[in-house]
Design brief:
It holds the Pfam family MFS_1. The protein is mainly α. It has three domains: 180 residues, MFS general substrate transporter like domains (Growth Hormone, Chain: A), CATH 1.20.1250.20; 57 residues; 213 residues, Growth Hormone, Chain: A. 78% of the residues lie in helices and 0% in strands. It is built from 17 helices and no strands. The radius of gyration is 22 Å and the shape is globular.
Length: 472
């Protein structure tokens, strides 16, 4: 449900805007609010499961997510929809961190490989099916509900999850769980919101002075967060963020890669959807189907990179992925400039396939590369921080859409009936930002180890025992 909800909403954005009269900044908050709440609560959600029981917290999150989905589907005001999406992201932060922890505590070591394989398949299915499902549900206009079924579809799934979860999931807790750091969560969230709110609303409000003061103040609040985290470490050893991790060069660089990659995906996917539907005038179904080559390419190269390429070439696979994805973006810029408003889904297929292939080479092996030199006793904290950084980057990218896309959108041209040209120019500008971020990713990967500790060059690698995964 989480993975589908992350991707399903973008396709329905034009329908939501038309039905509720939502402004461009409100459209950003519909996705940004979810990502921000999810990022802010991930680490705390995991610790709540360790302390109070993973089954209990999972079911609480599942119930809350289902309720929030119903509120999203019933919202008659764009601001109420944003509030429901924030609630959805917060409850997802309770639900999602428990999944792998439950698997780890439920299954013996020799069975986990198969379970993680099934988990990976479901992850891939969720990411691929989201845009298509969103397009179909919006296009079918079930019972005249337009975009609302994209949220209401979660109700039967959530109810089934609650029933089956209560029956089949065994309760488990951590033996030595870290304590909660609610002050750290509050400071981090406040600092991020102080930066993102004026960034998202600034263009619509004419970039007032208070917005710049608020963004400057966010640095002060985040500085206080760092000071408090050091105090919390000395006090009880349970900070929200283990700051000592950043003394590991590969981890610090890896967090930079995760952040940059999250930002570029946040920018790209929303701008792409708006370009196709509001600019080119395509239906939600056509826009969803156009993305199929991208999704297939990501799935194929993700599996190939982990199983075949990373054990042989190490970090070069991630760098090749960034360059391949950048090549796909440049090809897209060239085609969009050549064909203009007459571009077709078939003409988009090649650059989308190249971009998807590059993304698969990056996203699949990245986490293992980032964790490769982290001490084992901090692996849990590092994993939580990686996931949080990815979601935070996505939220920042969505906030930047107001600058890199809407900030250059010629609204007069849109009003004169030249929406395709205006949205095409704005989309092209956003793609240049994406290209620059991919170059940054390529450079940061140089700071990652050549080979992670869970892999070895093929010539030196010892054969794994039957059923034993080679890479974590």
């Amino acid at each position: 449900m989480d993975l589908v909800d992350v991707t399903i909403v973008n396709i329905a954005m034009p329908s939501i805007s038309h039905d509720l009269g939502a402004s461009f900044s409100v459209l950003q908050w519909i996705t940004e609010g979810y990502a921000l709440a999810f990022a802010a609560g991930l680490i705390t959600g995991g610790r709540l499961g360790d302390i109070y029981g993973r089954r209990r917290v999972f079911l609480l999150g599942m119930g809350g997510f289902t309720l929030a989905s119903m509120l999203c589907g019933l919202a008659g005001d764009p601001h109420l929809l944003v509030a429901a999406r924030v609630l959805q992201g917060g409850t997802a932060a309770l639900m999602v961190p428990q999944v792998l922890a439950i698997v780890h505590s439920t299954f013996p070591a020799h069975e986990r490989g198969k379970v993680f394989g099934m988990f990976g398949a479901i992850v891939g299915l969720g990411a691929v099916s989201g845009p298509i499902l969103g397009a179909l549900l919006t296009e079918w206009n079930i019972l005249g509900l337009e975009w609302r079924p994209i949220f209401l579809v979660n109700l039967p799934v959530g109810i089934a999850g609650l029933i089956l979860g209560r029956r089949f999931i065994a309760e488990s807790k951590a033996e030595n769980a870290l304590k909660l750091d609610l002050v750290g969560v509050a400071l981090a969230t406040l600092g991020i919101v102080m930066f993102l709110y004026p960034l998202t609303q600034g263009r619509e409000l004419g970039w007032p002075l208070w917005g710049f003061l608020l963004m400057g103040g966010s640095a002060v609040v985040l500085g206080l967060f760092v000071v408090y985290e050091r105090y919390k470490k000395r006090k009880d050893g349970s900070p929200l963020v283990e700051l000592s991790l950043f003394s590991v060069k590969s981890f610090a660089a890896g967090i930079g890669v995760q952040l940059a990659f999250g930002v570029l995906t946040g920018i790209y996917f929303l701008c792409w959807t708006l370009y196709m539907q509001l600019g080119l005038g395509w239906s939600a179904l056509r826009a969803g189907l156009t993305g199929i080559p991208f999704s297939i390419a990501v799935s194929v190269t993700a599996g190939m990179s982990v199983q075949k390429l990373v054990p042989r070439f190490g970090r070069k696979v991630l760098q090749a992925g960034a360059l391949v994805m950048a090549a796909g973006v440049l090809l897209y810029i060239w085609e969009a400039d050549r064909y203009g408003a007459d571009i077709t889904s078939w003409q988009m297929a090649l650059p989308l396939t190249v971009m998807g292939a590059g993304m698969g080479f990056v996203v699949a092996p990245l986490t293992d590369a980032v964790l490769s030199e982290v001490p084992r006793e901090h692996a849990g904290s590092a994993s939580g921080l990686i996931n949080t950084t990815q979601q935070l980057g996505n939220a920042i990218g969505l906030g930047l859409v107001s600058v890199v896309f809407f900030g250059v959108l010629d609204e007069d041209a849109v009003a004169r009936g030249r929406a395709a040209t205006a949205f095409g120019d704005a989309y092209g500008n956003a793609l240049w930002w994406v290209t620059g971020l991919l170059v940054l990713v390529f450079l940061l990967v140089f700071a990652l180890p050549r080979h992670s500790r869970t892999e070895a060059p093929v010539a030196d690698a010892a054969p794994a025992e039957k059923g034993e995964p080679i890479a974590a």
